[in-house]
Amino acid sequence: MPANTSGLSRRLDNPCPSWSPPQDRAKRVSLRLFWLLAARRRWYDKLVDRTLSAKTCVEPTHLTAKDVRYLDGILLEPTGRLRLLPASSYASIDLLHLRAWCSLNGRYGLPTTELVAWLKERIAGRSAVEIGAGCGDLGFRLGIPMTDSFQQVTDPATVGMLAQFRQAPATPLPDVEPEDAETAVRRRKPRVVIASWVAERSKPKEEGGTGNVHGPREEDILGRCESYIFVGNEAVHGKKRLRRVPHLMFKYPWLVSRARKPELNVIYLWEGQTMPLKQLR
Ligand SMILES: C[S@@+](CC[C@H](N)C(=O)[O-])C[C@H]1O[C@@H](n2cnc3c(N)ncnc32)[C@H](O)[C@@H]1O
How many structural domains is the chain composed of? Predict the structure, then answer.
């Protein structure tokens, strides 16, 4: 009978299905162990990425400087300044590698040729200044003064926090002037103020704020210029207080940053208004 035959042959092939020679079992166990460890590693990396990236937009920490060093030659000039590249050049870079590179090189928003052209059109020859310029990549390409409080290299709490997350500080190049945002705007009286990825002044975390107690008071800046243009990411900057004041919002595929969700990169523009500042306090 065909059914019996096949059952018999199965039994003959493998007389006792639960039994296998000891070497086979050892092989199977070590293989299983290997997959278990590999899965655990992948799970751990994902967890690190999710928790750190979502909260602080930092790099995936399992990537090291060695993994992304190849990007130095593509992204940096010999002076240490970021090259001005079209967004298409960034599109060909693995996003995790780009984010890790930014984090290891103190970069947040990355100027592209498209962004610089767009901002120049908005500035339209008016006097302008960049605040919180970090390394100064954007202001340099716009040909405007770059200013920064040097918070990430001088404030001990910030330095400690960045070190804890293994992030490099935004380290201003020599042509970035050490000036906090409010002083820069009061003193220079620019008609346009540009900021990229600068966190607003906030209460400490313990008091329910986002924690940057040294950030600029954007209300003050807004009240002193014709146009305030902020380049950032909705996930990171979308809840800033200033968004309660009428403004325009622009999203373009050529906005590039270290953000985990690049599709949320954004430009906010406050223009030509007398600010109802009291409303914000
Ligand atoms: C997140 S980094 C962004 C740097 C740069 N704009 C970029 O996109 O790569 C924020 C920068 O703002 C600076 N900063 C923080 N508070 C400031 C303040 N009150 N006035 C001026 N700069 C400030 C920090 O020193 C830091 O360089």
Answer: 2
